[in-house]
């Protein structure tokens, strides 16, 4: 089984105009990859389906907007992969 | 169905937590038919998609107790299979595909007399009502089309 990072990177490449080889563990999905909000919606849907989870994007966004969490915690690829792994583990 | 007012759903036939069935009758006449098309009146495909979106929207509104508003964000795999003429009796079915965080995906279709008219997968952003008048209008319209207050409150 590919890592969460690899699977999420594949999903992003399939659901946006971002080239797969441009996605690195340190890429910020919005700032570096330039994914717009509608593509991000498709990506979250694909992640939800692929991992059998519900990525709490609204709660994450609220935390970032309130200043209680840095955006990097959720939106840098390696951290996003870790958050997804945590959600999968919490579901098991 | 009042095409020029985007009032696409006449009544809700059944409503469950993950599915809705609604019915609509295409009017005999509408200014829309004057342009689409002269001598050959047809319900525009975009309005058939709107009809599927509205049925899906009422399903999603009932799930969240009318606390927020679903806005159509994407239409995928839309297939317009048959012409729809004035006086057609339509059955609109929508089922929940996925309930995400701040969004939802439905699968919807329209049939007439058992014949497939159209189908699509629709994605909605679920957002706060931008204006209390919209929330009021949605609740009022939902009551008019037969969505019971009990169902609206209980299906969270």
Proportion of β residues of chain B? Answer: 35-45%
**Element string of chain B (H = helix, E = strand):** EEHHEEEEHH
Separation of termini of chain B?
Answer: 28 Å
Helix content range of chain A? 55-70%
Give helix % range of chain B.
Answer: 25-40%
- Return the structural class of chain A: mainly alpha
What structural category do the secondary elements of chain B indicate?
Answer: alpha+beta
Biggest sheet overview of chain A: none
> How many helical stretches of chain B?
4
Low-confidence stretches of chain A: none
How many strand elements of chain A? 0
The biggest beta sheet of chain B is recorded as:
6 strands, antiparallel
**Biggest interface: chains and residue counts?**
A-B, 14 and 11 residues
Q: Counting H and I runs of at least 4 residues, what is the number of helices of chain A?
A: 5
Low-pLDDT sequence parts of chain B: 152-156
Average pLDDT over all residues of chain B:
94
């Amino acid at each position: 089984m590919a890592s969460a990072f690899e699977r999420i990177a594949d999903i992003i490449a399939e659901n946006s105009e971002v080239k797969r080889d441009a996605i690195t563990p340190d890429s910020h999905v919005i700032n570096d990859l330039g994914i717009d909000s509608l593509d991000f919606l498709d990506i979250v849907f694909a992640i939800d389906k692929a991992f059998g989870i519900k990525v709490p994007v609204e709660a994450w966004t609220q935390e970032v907007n309130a200043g209680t969490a840095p955006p990097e915690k959720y939106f840098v690829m390696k951290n996003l992969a870790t958050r997804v792994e945590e959600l999968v583990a919490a579901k098991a | 169905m009042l095409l020029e007012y985007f009032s696409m759903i006449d009544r809700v036939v059944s409503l469950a937590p993950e599915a809705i069935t609604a019915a609509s009758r295409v009017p005999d006449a509408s200014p829309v038919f004057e342009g689409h098309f002269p001598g050959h009146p047809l319900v525009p495909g975009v309005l058939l998609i709107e009809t599927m979106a509205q049925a899906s929207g009422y399903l999603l509104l009932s799930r969240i107790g009318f606390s927020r508003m679903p806005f159509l964000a994407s239409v995928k795999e839309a297939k317009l299979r048959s012409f729809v003429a004035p006086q057609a009796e339509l059955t609109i079915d929508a089922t929940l595909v996925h309930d995400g965080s701040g969004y939802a995906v439905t699968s919807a279709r329209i049939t007439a007399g058992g014949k497939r008219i159209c189908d699509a997968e629709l994605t909605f952003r679920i957002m706060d009502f931008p204006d209390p008048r919209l929330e009021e209008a949605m609740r009022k319209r939902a009551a008019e089309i037969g969505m019971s207050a009990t169902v609206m409150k209980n299906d969270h």
